[in-house]
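Section handout, structural biology tutorial.
Before the tutorial, make sure you can parse a SMILES string by hand: atoms, branches in parentheses, ring closures as digits. In the record below the ligand is S-adenosylmethionine, and the chain has 288 residues. In the tutorial you will relate the predicted structure tokens back to the input. Do not try to memorize them.
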Amino acid sequence: MYSDTAQARIPTPTAPTAPSAPTWDPQQYLRHAGHRARPFLDMLTRIPELPTRPARIADLGCGPGNVTTLLTDRWPEARVTGFDLSPEMLHRATEEYAGPTAGGGSLDFRHGDLATWLPEEPYDLIVSNAALQWVPSHPGSFAAWINGLRPGGTFAFQIPANFTAPSHALLAELCDAPRWRARLAGHGARYIHLLEPAEYLARFTELGCAVDVWTTTYHQLLQGPDPVLDWVKGTALRPVLTALGDDRDAVDAFLTEYRDRLREAYPAGPRGTVFPFRRIFAVARKEA
Ligand SMILES: C[S@@+](CC[C@H](N)C(=O)[O-])C[C@H]1O[C@@H](n2cnc3c(N)ncnc32)[C@H](O)[C@@H]1O
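Predicted structure of the complex:
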């Protein structure tokens, strides 16, 4: 049985390689945009009023920008900047959403690496949705990010915490199987650097913040054939697809093996396929 909680039980690859930054595919990622945006909307409801108007907001790991725009619904006059590392994601976000907003604010997107990003001016809100799991060093940046907030400002993030679920454990297992190990060891288990919710809470209280940390498991009902495979093609499979590159035969063989395992783990029901997905949330408000 797979546990939904213990990150540490993810198999350790026998011959770890350092996966390079994955190539992102905004179109594939957006195929499940509704389910992916839901946690962000839930997080928004827990973010308190911001200290200044118009507010200055950063979205770290903004992806294709569809979630970043939700910030301008809540704070229409805000100046919002999304930062991301992926040229494909930044291109999509800029094409679709950059420019002045209806409420008199603005939205722009810039290249930024979260491993080194520092607030370049005071922010009222720094958010990050489903991105910090890609940045193992993220807890080490919390002090600098909180320091870059105005008094009374907020840092809020959400990260998937699903890496011992079959979707991700099977991927890690397959990458480490004899057939794939030489090319893929380590590509399916990149997420062991997450902290437990209580540890996130402790980090922010130590930094003098008022903190709200919680977890939610979304019982997502997905439609279509092999929908869990389709889901991970937009996220957890990116490092594998990037590593296999143009080797079509290898991509097809890997996806077939993985798909068969997923079908067993997530059988299709009469109304769709249930794909439970656990996520950690943290909302930290700096002292006013
Ligand atoms: C799963 S997507 C989330 C996108 C968006 N926040 C959303 O909620 O839809 C993860 C994003 O994090 C970005 N990312 C990963 N590592 C990063 C890094 N070191 N610096 C900046 N962005 C990074 C990826 O390029 C990708 O766009």
